[in-house]
TrEMBL record:
Residue span(s) of domain C-type lectin: 189-299
Protein's recorded name: Asialoglycoprotein receptor 1 isoform X1
Record's keyword annotation contains Coiled coil: yes
Top-level division of the source organism's lineage: Eukaryota
Transmembrane annotation, as ranges: 65-88
PANTHER family, sorted: MANNOSE, PHOSPHOLIPASE, LECTIN RECEPTOR RELATED
Keyword vocabulary terms for this entry: Coiled coil, Disulfide bond, Lectin, Membrane, Receptor, Transmembrane, Transmembrane helix
Gene it is expressed from: clec4f
Coiled-coil zones: 124-176
Originating species: Xenopus tropicalis (Western clawed frog)
Length: 312
């Protein structure tokens, strides 16, 4: 009995020892598991917080980028509007300038308000400075444009005065009486006096006759002059008379020259059809036929009168 009692006590003691060991192990193991869980939860919370902060930062960056983009687009619109108004003001002078300037001022003021409301702090201040700078440049351009228009107007007025003065002088010259410019029996045409002789001779004597009257054989350089001479001939009843003119090629055959040096090649011509033809090989002087047309004939032909011209 005593032995059984001792055996039971030993078993009971063993169980108690095991229970104690289990309790100690449990207490040791479970707290460690609780510490890991807490650490894991803390890391997860930190990761979530970092993700939230990152998302907020990205959202703030996007909003800032969109704000700056809108500001730049608005600024570009205002700049384009300003350039359009400047071009329009240059192409339309007069009263439209003041209207364009008013519209431009309103546009700049509106742009300033928009810019100030769209950006804060230093960005808003920088944009405002840029707008003010552009406003000053626009004002300078407008001022220069007005000055240029004033100079152009002044120059136009001066030119108009000069034209009026020249016109007055031309009218005074045209209204001079014939007796004051030409001698008796002379006819005034433009800036020359013309004399129609009543006797015939060869070309050389006709020219010598004109020289005695301080003149020379006529040089016909325009259609108006040709028509006027023909009309005078008809008015004097000399339609059947031929007249020498100051045109010859005696220096070089085929090279016609006017006595006063007028360029034959570019000057007016009124030759009869087929003339000059140098018939017989010695037709070196020109005369006016009875129908008013020119013809070449030998210079010793003595059946032509002279038309003398005296420059005023």
């Amino acid at each position: 009995m005593v032995a059984e009692s001792l055996s039971l006590q030993r078993q009971l003691q063993t169980k108690q020892n095991r229970s104690t060991v289990s309790s100690v192990c449990a207490n040791t193991l479970y707290p460690a598991m609780d510490s890991d869980s807490i650490s894991l939860e803390i890391n997860m919370e930190r990761t979530h917080s970092n993700m939230m902060c990152s998302e907020e930062g990205q959202s703030h960056t996007k909003r800032r980028f969109m704000l700056m983009t809108n500001c730049l687009l608005g600024f570009s619109y205002v700049l384009i509007l300003a350039l359009f108004v400047i071009i329009l003001s240059k192409s339309i002078p007069g009263s439209s300038k003041s209207v364009n300037t008013t519209e431009l001022t309103y546009s700049w003021n509106s742009a300033s308000v928009w810019a100030i409301g769209s950006k804060n702090g230093s960005q808003s201040a920088e944009l405002t400075l840029e707008i003010e700078k552009l406003k000053r440049e626009v004002h300078d351009i407008s001022t220069r444009t007005e000055t240029e228009w004033a100079n152009i107007t002044l120059n136009m007025e001066k030119l108009q005065d000069e034209v009026a003065e020249l016109t007055k002088k031309m009218r005074e010259q045209k209204t001079l009486p014939t007796s004051a410019s030409c001698d008796n029996d002379w006819h005034l045409l433009g800036e020359s006096c013309y004399y129609f002789s009543v006797t015939s001779s060869d070309w050389f004597k006709a020219r010598a006759f004109c020289k005695t009257k301080e003149s020379d054989l006529v040089v016909i350089s325009t259609a108006f002059e040709q028509t006027a001479i023909n009309n005078i001939i008809k008015a004097k009843g000399l339609e059947l008379t031929r007249f020498w003119i100051g045109l010859t090629d005696m220096n070089s055959e085929g090279t016609w020259e006017w006595l006063d040096g007028t360029n034959y090649n570019t000057a007016f011509k009124f030759w009869r059809a087929g003339e000059p033809n140098d018939a017989g090989g010695n037709e070196d002087c020109a005369h006016i036929r009875t129908n008013g047309e020119w013809n070449d004939v030998h210079c010793t032909y003595a059946e032509c009168n002279a038309i003398c011209e005296k420059k005023l």
